[in-house]
């Protein structure tokens, strides 16, 4: 018998009676949070999903419910409540992914009908698993409180059938250290909770820029968990900033032009209709991800974003793990956002359970497609289909404070019909798929990154002489300032055929593996999230040996006397007046063509087969 039979019945009744969004009400200035006075006015919200909440004094009310939907508990209170639930549960287990830099466990709750507590036990069930991650930006914590309620209702609220065909892996707080850097004055653009965590981790690094480079301890633990627990769907819960609009729950994933087109087809054709229907029935307004081209002029249109692998959804696209980015609207009240997230997570379990075979087929199709050409960068283009955008009215005024034009949102709903949509959907830089890459053994940090991602490789046990491709670089451009703890670099590239002997310990990475496309994006230097562009190969751009002018002069004279073709090339070079007028450039020309020149300078220590 369910622990809450009355509550479950009320929930079903509410969903039956309130099948549409509530009627419009005049926008008002809210007064629940310390920053309400500086935020735009909003409509008063009432939705069927409010029936999901228990009374404040209920024995199993979450801290969120106890506060009337205003507060989110700190790390200690969160885990104390979950520990109490897990202790009395036959479905739930708690496992640590490891410890954060400040020594806090990053906990994951495993929910399965069989009570599995290891990856092996979960795999034996043969059911798909949904990994839900809350608090990668710990101030954006809606997923934690929604997940706590959902776990409670699975255990004792009559919803255990959600686990009949699917498992739930729930990380309530990913960025645990930032979660405890909490204040009511964090995230001024967001309506609650009363106390919010910090955006970046304790080292001031943004975890949602760290998927490809995997520098942070937290991300290394998460990637290990993904490899070990092998989810079929990954959900990353955020709260957005930016413009005002009617949607309260927006979500998206990478586009069909990416590396996982079969997953896109399933997400867009099967998953999205189910989720949007469930949210609408519950009194929410779902929509795609919202990124305005110009926050002060809605008529300019919207940006359709396909993320690179530094972000969760871009990373999922590269490793063929269907990944959903939830961006709840920061100007909607905390309670509304949490309840919308609950509805979305509950329907996700239903849809994935019902669609398990189709989802698995999509993942397999993408994982073993092995396209001959892989696109590294994309150009923007006007999309054939516009967007009837459910926006909010605004006016532009001259500010007496800044002297600039500023947007004043009115809170009143406005439909902007057929706004243009710009998307990065046109291939720009592409490369052919090599059979394999070879990374020289001294680049230990790079090899460790590949291991963290779960990319398979083999080590050469004896030297091998091969004909391979090697990139050489020119005109390196370094970032003017640090970005996410790294000095990024880009350069012009040329690919040359070379005869080389690879030493013992060189690793060979075949691209005919499930993570082969991810390996390509990490190792091709023109990929924006390649390990080269993230600065892991920066030492190759440093010259460490030189030749004095007094030695170059006689050497150059001998070279000209002994090599007529070299003399002709030098004469041709002198036709460039800038070169001819630069003594250092002339001497460097000879040094670079001598046996003394550093043959590894500006050469990529990663080879690729042709």
From TrEMBL:
CDD domains, sorted: M14-like
GO molecular function, one term: metallocarboxypeptidase activity
GO cellular component: extracellular space
Superkingdom as given in the UniProt entry: Bacteria
Pfam families (UniProt xref): Peptidase_M14 (PF00246)
Signal peptide range: 1-25
Cofactor needs: Zn(2+)
Keywords, in A-Z order: Carboxypeptidase, Hydrolase, Protease, Signal
Span of domain Peptidase M14: 71-352
GO biological process: proteolysis
SUPFAM superfamilies named among the record's database cross-references: Zn-dependent exopeptidases
List of catalytic residues: 327
SMART domains, per the entry: Zn_pept (SM00631)
InterPro entries in alphabetical order: Peptidase_M14
Protein's UniProt keywords contain Protease: yes
Similarity annotation: Belongs to the peptidase M14 family.
Protein name: Conserved hypothetical carboxypeptidase
Taxon lineage: Bacteria, Pseudomonadati, Pseudomonadota, Gammaproteobacteria, Alteromonadales
């Amino acid at each position: 018998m369910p622990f809450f039979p009355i509550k479950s019945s009320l929930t079903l009744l509410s969903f039956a009676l309130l099948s549409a969004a509530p009627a419009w009400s005049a926008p008002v200035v809210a007064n629940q949070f310390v920053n309400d006075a500086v935020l735009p006015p909003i409509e008063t919200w009432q939705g069927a999903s409010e029936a999901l909440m228990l009374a404040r004094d209920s024995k199993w009310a979450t801290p969120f419910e106890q506060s009337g939907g205003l507060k989110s508990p700190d790390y200690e209170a969160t885990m104390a409540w979950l520990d109490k639930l897990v202790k009395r549960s036959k479905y739930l287990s708690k496992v640590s992914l490891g410890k954060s830099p400040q020594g806090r466990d990053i906990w994951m709750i495993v929910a399965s009908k069989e009570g599995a507590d290891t990856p092996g036990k979960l795999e034996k069930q043969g059911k798909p698993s949904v990994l839900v991650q809350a608090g990668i930006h710990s101030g954006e914590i809606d997923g934690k409180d929604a997940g706590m309620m959902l776990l409670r209702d699975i255990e004792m609220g009559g919803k255990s059938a959600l686990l009949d065909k699917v498992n739930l892996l729930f990380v309530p707080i990913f960025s645990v250290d930032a979660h405890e850097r909490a204040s009511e004055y964090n995230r001024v653009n967001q309506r609650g909770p009363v106390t919010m965590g910090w955006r970046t981790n304790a080292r001031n690094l943004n975890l949602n820029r760290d998927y490809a480079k995997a520098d942070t301890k937290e991300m290394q633990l998460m990637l290990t968990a993904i490899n070990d627990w092998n989810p079929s769907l990954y959900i990353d819960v955020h709260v957005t900033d930016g413009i005002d609009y009617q949607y309260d729950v927006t979500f998206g994933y990478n586009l069909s032009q990416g590396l996982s087109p079969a997953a896109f087809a399933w997400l867009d054709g099967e998953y999205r209709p189910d989720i949007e229907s469930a949210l609408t029935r519950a009194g929410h307004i779902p929509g795609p991800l919202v990124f305005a081209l110009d926050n002060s002029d809605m008529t300019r249109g919207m940006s359709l974003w396909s993320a690179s692998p530094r972000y969760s959804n871009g990373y999922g696209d590269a490793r063929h793990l269907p990944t959903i980015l939830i961006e709840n609207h920061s100007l909607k009240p905390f309670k509304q956002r949490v309840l919308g997230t609950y509805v979305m997570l509950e329907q996700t379990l239903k849809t994935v359970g019902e669609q398990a075979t189709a989802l698995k087929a999509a993942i397999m199709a993408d994982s073993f497609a092995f396209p001959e050409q892989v696109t590294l960068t994309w150009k923007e283009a006007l999309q054939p289909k516009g967007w009837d955008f459910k926006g909010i009215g605004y006016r532009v005024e001259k500010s007496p404070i800044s002297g600039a034009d500023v947007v004043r949102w009115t809170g009143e709903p406005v439909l902007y019909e057929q706004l243009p949509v710009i998307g990065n959907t046109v291939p720009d830089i592409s490369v052919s798929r090599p059979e394999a890459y070879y990374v020289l053994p001294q680049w230990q940090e790079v090899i460790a990154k590949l291991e963290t991602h779960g990319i398979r490789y083999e080590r050469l046990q004896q030297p091998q002489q091969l004909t391979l491709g090697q990139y050489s670089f020119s005109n390196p451009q370094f970032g003017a300032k640090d970005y996410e703890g790294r000095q990024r670099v880009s350069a012009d590239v040329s690919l040359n055929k070379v005869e080389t002997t690879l030493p013992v310990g060189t690793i060979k990475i075949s691209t005919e593996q499930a993570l082969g496309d991810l390996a390509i994006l990490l190792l091709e230097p023109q990929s924006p999230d390649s390990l080269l562009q993230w600065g892991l190969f920066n030492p190759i751009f440093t010259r460490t040996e030189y030749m004095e002018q007094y030695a170059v002069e006689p050497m150059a004279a001998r070279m000209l006397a002994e090599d007529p073709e070299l003399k002709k090339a030098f004469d041709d070079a002198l036709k460039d007046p800038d070169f001819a007028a630069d003594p250092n450039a002339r001497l460097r020309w000879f040094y670079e063509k001598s046996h003394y020149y550093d043959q590894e300078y500006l050469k990529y220590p990663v080879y690729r087969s042709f």
